[in-house]
Each structure stands twice: as structure tokens, then as C-alpha cells.
Amino acid sequence: MTRKQRRLAMIGAAGGVLSLALGLVLFALSDQIVFFYTPSDIAQKGVQPGTRVRLGGLVADGSVHRGDGGKVSFEVTDTASAIEVTYTGILPDLFREGQGVVAEGVVGADGAFRADSVLAKHDENYMPREVADALKKQGHWMEKSAQ
Amino acid sequence: MTGAFPVAELGHFALVLALALSLIQSSVPLWGARSGDARLMGVAPATATAGFLYVALAFAALTAAHLQSDFSVQNVWENSHSAKPLLYKITGVWGNHEGSMLLWVLILTLFGALVARFGRNLPDSLRATVLAVQGWIGSAFLLFILLTSNPFARLDPAPLEGRDLNPLLQDVGLAVHPPLLYLGYVGFSIAFSFALAALIDGRIDAAWARWVRPWTLAAWTFLTLGIAMGSYWAYYELGWGGWWFWDPVENASFMPWLAGTALLHSALVMEKRGALKIWTVLLAILTFSLSLIGTFLVRSGVLTSVHAFATDPTRGVFILGILVLFIGGGLSLFAWRAPTLKQGGLFAPISREGALVFNNLFLVAATAAVFVGTLYPLALEGLTGKKISVGAPFFDLTFGPLMIPVLLAVPFGPLLAWKRGDLAAAAQRLGVAMAASVAGVLAVLLLSGSHAALPALGIGLGLWLIAGAFSELAERTRLFRLPIAASAARLAGLPRSAFGTALAHAGLGVTLIGIVATSAFQSELITEVQPGDRVEVGEYGLTYVGTAPMTGPNYRAEVAHFRVDRDGVGIGTVTPSKRIYTVRQMPTTEAAIETYGLSQLYVSLGDRSERGLVLRAYYKPFVTLIWLGAVVMAAGGAASLSDRRLRIGAPRRAASRTTDPVPA
């Protein structure tokens, strides 16, 4: 092979690998990403049953019920709408009524949300960003003072 | 403590002096290098060393303030408490935004001082230019600290008690994780400075690669350990048994690792064969750029996670400015000057060089995939306001397929000759490795049935890597073809870098086996227990004895006691607990982890329900291999680093190429 042919082969290989990467990324982005919704979004626009979504808001006061075998149900609210969430497993340490939460899962045909993961804030200063934004939208957000 | 020595002011003053020195280091030596003035160039090592000492003094001052629990210093008040254990008073120094930036700069100036100390045999102008570029980075980050993140700000009146450190960070793992990580990705700044210096000089040769490689190798070794440590910390501290979440903060450290791995390999080609010069310079710029992007992601507060201690937009904008300046500046300089660098070294596609190019192509593509997955959600939200999350499925689908070709190819690389290799001959030499791999696949299939086809292939790939790595050593020692004693003599005569390569590649296989085995074969149990109940997870039984309260120095805890048995035979107890840190009223879960051989039993507690205590238990087979593999990789890095040829400061521009016996 001449120098030129070798260079062409190299560029071809690089192009091939990069287009493979690009193809994989585009395919994954079209298929594997999860959108974030607030209870109001779901109430207004609706979500195709079976689509994976992230749902964020506050855990409604008095809504947490613990069943057998680690089954839990609670309502997530952004103060305008609320949606029922069911979950099986151990809730995070900082899961509490009145606190911010993000649940990932699917909306069933009955309108209830089946979560397979529940994330709560990490410490007392931190509210999941999506939740804070959603609450700001509803006008129910108070900036925490620096204490 | 207000009447005591004004240690915070001393620290602040030292930082200002360090900035002044850093500005001199940024400019004077560069002028000296342009005008060929040896005295001006000589300023570089002196300022680099002094700058490091002043930053070290500032760091010591902050540490002293933390040790004395001087709550008139805001940083101490926000992150410490008089009842906090001594160890966490020390590690708390970098367990917060301001302190961790100070650690960042401390390590940056440390590397500068090391180049000054060990770079005596670098050409004067190259050393001066490299240190000047280091000075630019140092100045930018010192300015950032002094203007937006001053760790020495005072409070008046001084509070009586501090607010304590985030309990998740009160942990030994966190004591070592950030320093290791920073040694890694700040260490890549040296490669960046060398790259920029080469571009400014317009001169680059194999000796350049020989100087850059030890620094890159050292940084890579620390980064490997740092990432593994962070992963193990998340595993035991967050209480849900996961060891990698594809969280943007993890990706922030993983991207420089991937790019740095590519850089190590391309610098090898450049050192031995003088090829891939321009590509290596570009990779050096990109690797440190990814480190800067990582710093931006973690330190600016654009992400919300446990690492984003502070959310202050002025900081974000400032770091973004630094990012644009250095990445933009570096790439512009590259675009302008790279065409003047001479390319060299011809090679056939099937050759050692070809294999390393293959490695580079896929590693860079994989880095790009991780980059997109990490930054796309931020970009999309910034541009359209839509919020998405990109999780493990995305990375499994993109990163996974891009890594498989590299992993398959790894054992071939060292067996191919430079310039023109023989693929069939290499494959023949890998016969034993192939047999080991196939045997592994069959063994897994026999033990767990045909539904385990994918995990079996994964474990086979891991064995292929391990056996392949040692095939090269076997080949070079003519194992079983010469008498054992002769082979042993040859083994002792091999350069340490040969062991380094074998260990690093084998470590990759070890980690892979750990990942596959844990993901595919772990057992998980979530249930409620009453005292006296016995539950089973994997081959182990857990009998709940009861719960007892306990008081720690700055927390209260409920400790649950479980007896562990295997097939009914008692083998010990585990005591997972829930803690409440009294100052922040923050609960944490302390998982109990018992190691049996290479596998672990992981027990953590949930809330109390009407039916008892909620228990989550995992049996994680071979999980420790994930981190052991990383330690083996790092050992490989260290072995290579100790090779005489690579020892820092050893290379000389005029030195003749060492005669490295190429496997025939």
C-alpha cells in the first residue's frame, strides 16, 4: 500500500467507528431516554400507558400506606394535581411526607403509577432539581434562606 | 479561638502570594523561552516550587482551622462540629466545595513542583514553557478560589457550634477518594502543558512522548484507584448495593480515564515509532479538557447530586469561563500549529501500531458516547426546557458495544510486531487463552443453564483478557519450550513494563468478570422480619436476633443483629444499622457487608413497618473482583512506572533507543 492508500484506510476506519458510535447513540437516545413529568403534566397531557417516565413532586401529607412485603403506596403532588404511586422495596432514607421525591416507572392503564425506583433528596438542603422547578412553576416555591 | 493566632488570614495571604507567583510563572519563563534568556527561563522552577509551598501553607492553615473547630471561619462552621471524630475533622477539609478546590490547586501546583524538580534534564526552553502553561492553569484556579470560593471567609460573631459535615461524607472511603481522583485528573494537566508547549515550540519528537508518558501513566494509575474507591464508597455507603450508576458525577471522572487510557497507548506508538504525533497531542489536550469538564460538572452545581455541595451560579459561570479559555485556547493553538509538526512512521494496518490505533478509535468513540449521554440532558434542558434522564440503558446500549471490540482485541496487541504484524501467528500464540475462554463459557453454561448465555460469554471474555495478558509473558519467556529454569531467567530479565502491560490487561479482565458475575447471578431479598425469623438469600441464612440502640460521637443509631449461617451452620453475625446524625437530623443507612472468599453478603435496613423491620439483603457473587481488578490495573501502571526506561527524569533527548527484544 502506498502512503496515500494507508491514510485513506485509516480515515475510512475512523469514519466507520465514529459512524457506528453515532448510530448507537442516536438509536439509544430515541429509545432509552426517560422524560420528566409533573403530576400536572400527566393530568393535562396524559401519558401513553406503558411509557417509562420520571415523576417528580412532593409526597402528599397523610398519603403513605405500607402494605405487606415492602409494598408502599403514596401520592405525589405538585399542589395542582396529584397522582397515586405504588412501589415495592425499601424507600430511601430521606423519603418523608411533605418532602420532594422523584419516582421512575410506568403509568398503568388504570392511571396509577408503578414505580420501580424512588429517589429522595440527599440531605436537608437539597431538593431534586426537577421537583424544585416544577414547584416553582406552580408558584409554591420558597427560596430556602441560607440559615 | 478568636484570640488565637489568625490562622485563616495567614492562609488567605498565602493564597494571594501563590497567585502572584503563579502569574510570574505564567509569563516570565515564556518570555525567556522566546528570547533564549536562560535567567528568565530559570524563574520557572523557582516560582513553581515556591507557589506549591504557599498553596501547601494555605491548605495547612485551613486544616488547622478545622482541627481547632474555629467556627469563626465560615467553611469550618458549615462543615464541622466540635464532636466530629478527628479523622473527619481532617477529611472534612476537602469534603466541601471551597476545600476541595483548594485540594485541586494543591495537587496542580504539586505536579508543577515535581516537573520543576525532576525535569532537570528537559531542554530548558521546553521546561520553561511547560511550567508557564501550568502557571496559566494555576492562576485561573487560584483566581477562582480567591474571587468566588474563599475558604477563609470569617463569620462575625462566631457561632458557638458548627453545622457538621454531611453524614454521607463522614467515611474513610471519602477520606481517600478525592485526593486519589484529583491526583489522577489534575495529573493529566502535565500532559496538556507538554502538548501546548510542543505546539508553541513547533517541535515534537519521540523524546517528547517519553517525557509525557510517565506523567500520564502516574495520573492514570491514581485515577484508576480513585474511580474504584469512589465506586466502592457508593456501594457500601448509599445502602442499596449498586456500584456504578452512570451518574454524571461518575462519568465526569470516567471520561478522562477513557481518554487517558487512549493517550497512554498512542504515546507508546509515538515513543517507539515516531508516528501518531499530531493525534497524541490532540488526545493530551482532550484528556485534560475532559478533566476540566468534570471539574465544571461537579463544582458548578449544574448537576444536583451529593457531590454538588454548592449551588452558586457565579461559580458555574467562572468555571465555564476557565473551561472555554483552556479548551478553546488549546484547540485553537492545535488547529493553528499542528500542521507544522512533522508526521512520521509508516505502518501496515495489521501491526502493533495498527492495534493501538484500533484501541484509540474505539476508546475515543466510547468516550464520545459517554460524553453525549452525560451532557445531552443538560443541553436539551438548557435549549428547550424539556427534562430527560439518561440512565444505565443508554450506556449499556452505546458504551457496551463500543467496548467489546477493544476487549476482544486487547490480547492481540502486544503479540503483534511493530510496523508489520502477523495476525495468524498471534492467534496461534493465543491458543491457550482461547481454550481457557471457551472452557470458561462452557463451565458457566453447565453450572447455570442455557439462559445464562450472555453472562457466560462475558465471563469468557474476561478469561480471554486474563489468559491473553499472560500469553505474552509466556511467549517472551518461551515457557514450556525451554527448560523451566531458562524461562524463569528470561522472566526475571523482562523489563518491568512488560509485567505492567500484562497486569493492566489482566486487571481489566478481572473487573469484567466481577461485573458480569455480580450483575447476572446476584440474589436479592426484600422482606420484613420479626425477632427470631430466619430468611435465606443465596446460600446464606439470616436470623434476626433483635435491635439495640447505640450512641456514637455525633449520631444515634439503631443496630440490628443478625446471625449468619450457611446451610444451617452458624458462621458469624452481621450488624447493619440506621443512624441519625443529631446536628443535621439526617438519617443514614449503614449496610453490613460480610466478605466470603471473593463474594459478599450485603445486608441493609429499611423502615420499620407494622409487620416488622424491613430488610434488604443481597448475595453478590464475585463482586469484590470489580475493585480488585482495578487494583491489579493500577499495580500494572505502577510496575510500568518503575521501569528504568520510564522512570521520571530518566529519558534524554540524545539517548539511543533502548534495545527492546521484540517478540519474533
Query: Can you count the beta strands of chain A?
Result: 7
| Unreliable residue runs of chain B | 305-310, 648-664
Give the % helix of chain A: 25-40%
Shape of chain B: globular
Q: Tell me, what is the CATH class of the largest domain in chain A?
A: Mainly Beta
Q: Assembly state here?
A: heterodimer
The total count of helices of chain B amounts to 20
**Average pLDDT reading of chain A:** 77
Domain Cytochrome c assembly protein (chain B): 94-300
Membrane topology (chain B): Multi-pass membrane protein
Family (chain B): Belongs to the CcmF/CycK/Ccl1/NrfE/CcsA family.
Function (chain B): Required for the biogenesis of c-type cytochromes. Possible subunit of a heme lyase.
Quick recap:
Chain A: GO terms for molecular function: heme binding; metal ion binding. Chain A is α+β, with helices and mostly antiparallel strands.
Task: Describe the protein.
Chain A is an alpha+beta fold and 147 residues long. Chain A folds into 2 domains: 1-33; 39-137, OB fold (Dihydrolipoamide Acetyltransferase, E2P) (Beta Barrel), CATH 2.40.50.140. Chain A is built from 3 helices and 7 strands. A 5-stranded mixed beta barrel of chain A has the order 2-4-5-7-6. In chain A, helix 2 links the parallel strand 1 (33-37) and strand 2 (52-59). The longest helix of chain A has 29 residues, at 3-31. Mean pLDDT of chain A is 77; it is low at 122-126 and 141-147. Chain B contains 20 helices and 11 strands. In chain B, strands 3, 4, 5, 6, 7 and 8 form a 6-stranded antiparallel sheet that branches. Chain B is globular. At the A-B interface, helix 1, strand 1 and helix 3 of A face helix 13, strand 1, helix 14, strand 2 and strand 8 of B.
